[in-house]
Amino acid sequence: MEIWEVIARASIGDLVARYNSNGDTGRFAQVLELFADDAVMVVEDTTYEGKDEILTVFTGAQDNLRTDATDRAPAYIRHHTATHQVDFRDEAHATGRCYFQVLSPIGLDHWGRYADTYACVDGTWRFTRRHVTVDGQAPNSVFPASDG
To answer: Could you count the other beta carbons within 10 Å of the beta carbon of residue 74?
Structure first.
């Protein structure tokens, strides 16, 4: 493995971790910085193009949590990812996939898969496409239609 690949793998791992931690804590400006300007995010069958549309994925999830907090204990959300596999097309382009689980006040809320496309933009790895597939959901999920 060449040094560029070691650095790229660490950078892409950090990208995925920052997506989770910033999204879970409501730092949506920082989440949007992780996406290329022309990025696409697909959640189940809905496509969001560009950062402005992608932002609505997170603000919608936040609205669900605020609603939930009035009915139950204070709301929170914690994404956990595992089995992250990254494949490089070249030194500036890669694809990846991993599983996710989401914890909320009810426990395990929903789970699924991310399928990603990454690009190194101005020396920083960004999402160019993120496809979220929800494989399952708790009957009492805080998300009527789950958001990854």
So the answer is: 8
